[in-house]
Amino acid sequence: MALYTGLPLEWDSIALVKPNAGDVSAALATADIAESQKGWFEQAQSLEDLLYFSVALGTKLVGQIFLHDMDLDQHEAMVGYHIFDAEKRGRGYGTAALGALCHYAFHELGLDRLVMITEFENSASQRIAEKCGFLNIGPAREGPDLIVYERLGTVR
Ligand SMILES: CC(C)(COP(=O)(O)OP(=O)(O)OC[C@H]1O[C@@H](n2cnc3c(N)ncnc32)[C@H](O)[C@@H]1OP(=O)(O)O)[C@@H](O)C(=O)NCCC(=O)NCCS
Hints:
Mean pLDDT: 96
CATH architecture of the domain at 9-114: 3-Layer(aba) Sandwich
Number of helices: 4
CATH superfamily of the domain at 9-114: Gcn5-related N-acetyltransferase (GNAT)
Bound molecules: coenzyme A
Protein backbone atom coordinates (compact mmCIF):
# COMPACT_ATOMS: atom_id res chain seq x y z
CA MET A 1 0.00 0.00 0.00
CA ALA A 2 1.01 3.64 -0.38
CA LEU A 3 0.70 4.90 -3.96
CA TYR A 4 -1.74 3.06 -6.24
CA THR A 5 0.20 1.25 -8.96
CA GLY A 6 -2.49 -0.70 -10.80
CA LEU A 7 -4.32 -0.18 -14.07
CA PRO A 8 -6.61 2.85 -14.46
CA LEU A 9 -9.95 2.36 -12.70
CA GLU A 10 -12.45 3.98 -15.05
CA TRP A 11 -15.73 5.21 -13.63
CA ASP A 12 -18.11 7.47 -15.53
CA SER A 13 -16.11 10.42 -16.83
CA ILE A 14 -12.98 9.95 -14.72
CA ALA A 15 -10.39 7.31 -13.87
CA LEU A 16 -8.43 6.63 -10.71
CA VAL A 17 -4.83 6.28 -11.82
CA LYS A 18 -1.30 5.71 -10.60
CA PRO A 19 0.01 9.07 -9.33
CA ASN A 20 2.87 10.73 -11.18
CA ALA A 21 5.03 12.75 -8.76
CA GLY A 22 5.69 15.62 -11.17
CA ASP A 23 2.04 16.00 -12.16
CA VAL A 24 0.84 15.83 -8.54
CA SER A 25 3.32 18.41 -7.34
CA ALA A 26 2.45 20.80 -10.21
CA ALA A 27 -1.28 20.36 -9.51
CA LEU A 28 -0.89 20.87 -5.77
CA ALA A 29 1.10 24.07 -6.34
CA THR A 30 -1.99 25.76 -7.81
CA ALA A 31 -4.76 23.79 -6.07
CA ASP A 32 -7.14 25.90 -3.98
CA ILE A 33 -7.65 23.22 -1.33
CA ALA A 34 -6.56 23.79 2.29
CA GLU A 35 -2.79 23.73 2.81
CA SER A 36 -3.33 21.03 5.44
CA GLN A 37 -4.71 18.74 2.71
CA LYS A 38 -1.71 19.04 0.41
CA GLY A 39 0.49 16.62 2.35
CA TRP A 40 -1.34 13.37 1.58
CA PHE A 41 0.72 12.51 -1.49
CA GLU A 42 3.97 12.99 0.45
CA GLN A 43 2.67 10.93 3.38
CA ALA A 44 1.52 8.16 1.06
CA GLN A 45 5.12 7.48 0.12
CA SER A 46 5.97 6.37 3.65
CA LEU A 47 2.70 5.34 5.33
CA GLU A 48 1.65 1.73 4.83
CA ASP A 49 -1.94 2.36 5.94
CA LEU A 50 -2.56 4.98 3.25
CA LEU A 51 -3.44 4.21 -0.38
CA TYR A 52 -3.38 7.25 -2.67
CA PHE A 53 -4.89 7.60 -6.17
CA SER A 54 -4.84 10.44 -8.65
CA VAL A 55 -8.17 11.40 -10.23
CA ALA A 56 -7.73 11.86 -13.98
CA LEU A 57 -10.02 13.37 -16.59
CA GLY A 58 -8.50 12.05 -19.79
CA THR A 59 -4.83 13.00 -19.48
CA LYS A 60 -5.52 15.82 -17.02
CA LEU A 61 -5.02 15.42 -13.29
CA VAL A 62 -8.05 16.92 -11.53
CA GLY A 63 -7.87 15.60 -8.00
CA GLN A 64 -6.80 13.11 -5.39
CA ILE A 65 -8.63 10.44 -3.42
CA PHE A 66 -7.24 8.10 -0.80
CA LEU A 67 -7.90 5.50 1.84
CA HIS A 68 -6.20 6.29 5.12
CA ASP A 69 -5.99 4.66 8.55
CA MET A 70 -6.57 1.41 6.69
CA ASP A 71 -6.99 -1.60 8.94
CA LEU A 72 -6.96 -4.73 6.80
CA ASP A 73 -7.58 -6.98 9.82
CA GLN A 74 -10.76 -5.08 10.66
CA HIS A 75 -11.55 -4.63 6.93
CA GLU A 76 -12.06 -0.88 7.30
CA ALA A 77 -10.56 2.43 6.26
CA MET A 78 -11.22 6.15 6.18
CA VAL A 79 -11.65 8.11 2.96
CA GLY A 80 -10.44 11.56 1.85
CA TYR A 81 -10.91 13.37 -1.48
CA HIS A 82 -10.24 16.68 -3.17
CA ILE A 83 -10.92 18.09 -6.62
CA PHE A 84 -8.05 20.52 -6.93
CA ASP A 85 -9.60 23.52 -8.68
CA ALA A 86 -12.94 25.26 -8.13
CA GLU A 87 -13.67 25.35 -11.84
CA LYS A 88 -13.59 21.55 -12.00
CA ARG A 89 -16.03 21.07 -9.11
CA GLY A 90 -19.75 20.50 -9.47
CA ARG A 91 -19.30 18.46 -12.66
CA GLY A 92 -19.68 15.01 -11.15
CA TYR A 93 -15.98 14.17 -10.89
CA GLY A 94 -15.99 13.89 -7.08
CA THR A 95 -19.00 11.54 -7.15
CA ALA A 96 -17.37 9.40 -9.84
CA ALA A 97 -14.06 9.25 -7.97
CA LEU A 98 -15.75 8.18 -4.75
CA GLY A 99 -17.83 5.61 -6.60
CA ALA A 100 -14.69 4.11 -8.13
CA LEU A 101 -12.89 4.09 -4.82
CA CYS A 102 -15.77 2.36 -3.03
CA HIS A 103 -15.90 -0.31 -5.73
CA TYR A 104 -12.15 -0.92 -5.48
CA ALA A 105 -12.16 -0.94 -1.68
CA PHE A 106 -15.03 -3.40 -1.35
CA HIS A 107 -14.34 -5.65 -4.34
CA GLU A 108 -10.56 -5.61 -4.69
CA LEU A 109 -9.25 -4.89 -1.18
CA GLY A 110 -11.98 -6.82 0.63
CA LEU A 111 -12.87 -3.94 2.94
CA ASP A 112 -16.37 -3.84 4.33
CA ARG A 113 -16.54 -0.48 6.09
CA LEU A 114 -15.54 2.98 4.85
CA VAL A 115 -15.73 6.10 7.02
CA MET A 116 -15.53 9.74 5.98
CA ILE A 117 -15.44 12.79 8.25
CA THR A 118 -16.42 16.16 6.84
CA GLU A 119 -17.28 19.63 8.04
CA PHE A 120 -20.90 20.38 8.85
CA GLU A 121 -20.83 23.20 6.30
CA ASN A 122 -19.29 21.16 3.45
CA SER A 123 -22.50 20.40 1.54
CA ALA A 124 -20.72 19.16 -1.61
CA SER A 125 -18.72 16.61 0.37
CA GLN A 126 -21.81 15.40 2.21
CA ARG A 127 -23.77 15.21 -1.02
CA ILE A 128 -21.24 13.05 -2.83
CA ALA A 129 -20.98 10.77 0.19
CA GLU A 130 -24.75 10.34 0.19
CA LYS A 131 -24.85 9.78 -3.57
CA CYS A 132 -22.29 7.00 -3.11
CA GLY A 133 -24.29 5.24 -0.43
CA PHE A 134 -22.76 6.67 2.75
CA LEU A 135 -25.04 7.37 5.71
CA ASN A 136 -24.68 10.19 8.23
CA ILE A 137 -24.01 8.46 11.55
CA GLY A 138 -23.71 11.60 13.66
CA PRO A 139 -21.23 14.15 14.97
CA ALA A 140 -17.53 13.33 15.20
CA ARG A 141 -15.71 12.96 18.52
CA GLU A 142 -13.30 15.66 17.29
CA GLY A 143 -16.00 18.34 17.47
CA PRO A 144 -19.64 19.25 16.77
CA ASP A 145 -18.77 20.97 13.47
CA LEU A 146 -17.67 17.63 12.00
CA ILE A 147 -20.00 14.88 10.76
CA VAL A 148 -19.20 11.20 10.32
CA TYR A 149 -20.41 9.27 7.28
CA GLU A 150 -20.20 5.50 6.92
CA ARG A 151 -20.72 3.03 4.13
CA LEU A 152 -20.86 -0.67 4.79
CA GLY A 153 -19.94 -3.15 2.07
CA THR A 154 -20.43 -6.86 1.94
CA VAL A 155 -20.80 -8.55 5.30
CA ARG A 156 -17.81 -10.79 6.06
C1 LIG B 1 -16.12 17.86 -2.08
C2 LIG B 1 -15.67 17.66 -3.52
C3 LIG B 1 -14.61 16.56 -3.59
C4 LIG B 1 -16.89 17.23 -4.34
O1 LIG B 1 -16.46 16.99 -5.67
P1 LIG B 1 -17.28 17.59 -6.91
O2 LIG B 1 -16.66 17.10 -8.14
O3 LIG B 1 -17.41 19.05 -6.73
O4 LIG B 1 -18.68 16.88 -6.64
P2 LIG B 1 -19.83 16.50 -7.68
O5 LIG B 1 -19.85 17.49 -8.79
O6 LIG B 1 -19.67 15.07 -8.05
O7 LIG B 1 -21.12 16.59 -6.77
C5 LIG B 1 -21.32 17.71 -5.94
C6 LIG B 1 -22.74 17.63 -5.39
O8 LIG B 1 -22.82 18.54 -4.30
C7 LIG B 1 -23.79 19.51 -4.59
N1 LIG B 1 -23.31 20.76 -4.04
C8 LIG B 1 -22.22 21.42 -4.38
N2 LIG B 1 -22.10 22.55 -3.65
C9 LIG B 1 -23.16 22.54 -2.84
C10 LIG B 1 -23.62 23.43 -1.87
N3 LIG B 1 -22.95 24.53 -1.55
N4 LIG B 1 -24.77 23.13 -1.23
C11 LIG B 1 -25.46 22.00 -1.54
N5 LIG B 1 -25.05 21.10 -2.45
C12 LIG B 1 -23.92 21.40 -3.09
C13 LIG B 1 -23.92 19.55 -6.08
O9 LIG B 1 -25.15 20.06 -6.49
C14 LIG B 1 -23.77 18.06 -6.40
O10 LIG B 1 -24.92 17.33 -6.08
P3 LIG B 1 -25.98 16.93 -7.24
O11 LIG B 1 -25.23 16.08 -8.21
O12 LIG B 1 -27.03 16.19 -6.51
O13 LIG B 1 -26.46 18.18 -7.87
C15 LIG B 1 -15.12 18.96 -4.14
O14 LIG B 1 -16.11 19.92 -4.16
C16 LIG B 1 -13.88 19.48 -3.42
O15 LIG B 1 -12.79 19.01 -3.68
N6 LIG B 1 -14.04 20.46 -2.52
C17 LIG B 1 -12.91 21.05 -1.83
C18 LIG B 1 -12.18 20.06 -0.97
C19 LIG B 1 -13.10 19.33 -0.01
O16 LIG B 1 -14.02 19.93 0.55
N7 LIG B 1 -12.84 18.03 0.18
C20 LIG B 1 -13.61 17.19 1.07
C21 LIG B 1 -13.09 17.29 2.47
S1 LIG B 1 -14.02 16.22 3.54
